[in-house]
């Protein structure tokens, strides 16, 4: 499975969002990561389906990876699907019926996923691996960009990689939080194949230089 770089637009310049996304994709990024926060499930308020729809109307054709940090999640899923989301991932704590929510995402034509905070146990995967296209591990506590990578996420990555490999399903393993050029090699070695990086990309003057360095580091893993 190819390694994918997914810059988080949370760190982009929102006054020039379409241009920012165009530039980071031209620089070699693969996926647009879209952080949705509700100031309820997490302590921050960000963006909704209208911004996703606006990026599609702007001409963005790359996959849009919508990470829902909201509670409850079911009400907003159809809106993001209609707005052009490719992946929709959510936290098990935010759904009363995880199986139903995963199926709802797929029924609306998107790929589905579960997100695990640093202290969230993995048992939520036990009976739904057949309905999951992506597992996202948070390597920071969600709510803010620019945080430092939590080292214990590497052990969790290894556990999830083992689960995916043993399941036989085609599931991406995404990591989000503090991913940078100087740690992406060990993150890939632990099993990740999809890498969210916000300030590591958008906070730099040369997006292509950063993405090229990340790929060079991953190639050494």
The gist of it:
With 221 residues, the protein is α/β, with parallel strands linked by helices.
Structure description:
The chain has a single domain (4-219), classed as TIM Barrel, CATH 3.20.20.70. 34% of the residues lie in helices and 18% in strands. The chain contains eight helices and eight strands. The chain has helices at residues 17-26, 49-58, 77-83, 98-107, 153-167, 184-189, 199-202, 207-219, and strands at residues 4-7, 32-37, 64-69, 87-90, 111-116, 134-138, 172-176, 194-197. The longest helix is centred in the last third of the chain and has 15 residues, at 153-167. It is globular.
Q: What's the overall geometry?
A: globular
Helix run count: 8
CATH topology: TIM Barrel
Through-space gap between termini: 14 Å
CATH homologous superfamily?
A: Aldolase class I
Going across the major beta sheet, what is the strand order? Answer: 1-8-7-6-5-4-3-2
Q: What is the arithmetic mean of pLDDT? A: 96
Give the quaternary arrangement of the chains.
single chain
The profile of the biggest β sheet is: 8 strands, parallel
CATH architecture: Alpha-Beta Barrel
How many whole angstroms does the radius of gyration measure? 16 Å
Structural class: alpha/beta
- Roughly what percent helix? 25-40%
String of helices and strands: EHEHEHEHEEHEHEHH
């Amino acid at each position: 499975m190819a390694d994918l770089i997914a810059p988080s637009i949370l760190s982009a310049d929102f006054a020039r969002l379409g241009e920012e996304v165009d530039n980071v994709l031209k620089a070699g990024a693969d996926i647009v990561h879209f952080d949705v926060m509700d100031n309820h499930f997490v302590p921050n308020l960000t963006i909704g389906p209208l911004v996703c729809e606006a990026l599609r109307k702007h001409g963005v054709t790359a996959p849009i990876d919508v990470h829902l940090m909201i509670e409850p999640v079911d009400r907003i899923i159809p809106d993001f699907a209609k707005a052009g989301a490719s992946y929709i991932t959510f936290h098990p704590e935010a759904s009363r019926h995880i199986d139903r929510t995963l199926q709802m995402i797929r029924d609306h034509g998107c790929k589905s996923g579960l997100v695990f905070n640093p202290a969230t146990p993995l048992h939520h995967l036990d009976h739904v691996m057949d309905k999951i296209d992506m597992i996202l591990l948070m390597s920071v506590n969600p709510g803010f960009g620019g945080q430092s990578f939590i080292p214990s996420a590497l052990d969790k990555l290894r556990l999830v990689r083992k689960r995916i490999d043993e399941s036989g399903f085609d599931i991406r393993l995404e990591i989000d939080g503090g991913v940078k050029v100087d740690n992406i090699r060990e993150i890939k070695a632990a099993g990740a194949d999809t890498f969210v990086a916000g300030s590591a990309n958008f906070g730099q003057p040369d997006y292509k230089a950063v993405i090229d360095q990340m790929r060079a580091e991953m190639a050494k893993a």
